[in-house]
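Suppose you are handed a protein chain with no further information: no name, no annotation, nothing but its sequence. What can you learn? This example shows the usual starting point.
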Amino acid sequence: MLDEADVRAKQEWSELFIAGTKKVQVLVAQAHHYLTPEDWSMKEAKRFIDDLRALRDNARKLKSTVPIEACQPAVRKGSSGGK
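A reasonable first move is to predict its three-dimensional structure. Written in structure tokens, the prediction is:
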């Protein structure tokens, strides 16, 4: 069982992660709207995909280590869908 300090630390981390995820969503929307395939080098595109995968993996790790009841409402709402 996690003690209160651990739960709070993980809640704070999850809040930072949510903020970072929202920034990524904005960047993806902008990239999709404003960029054409010619604007990206293959190296840049692969780096971008790798960054998105790392964020996904971190989200999965967080989901498996923090009890869903201890998470903020936005996290609980987001955990009901996806893989």
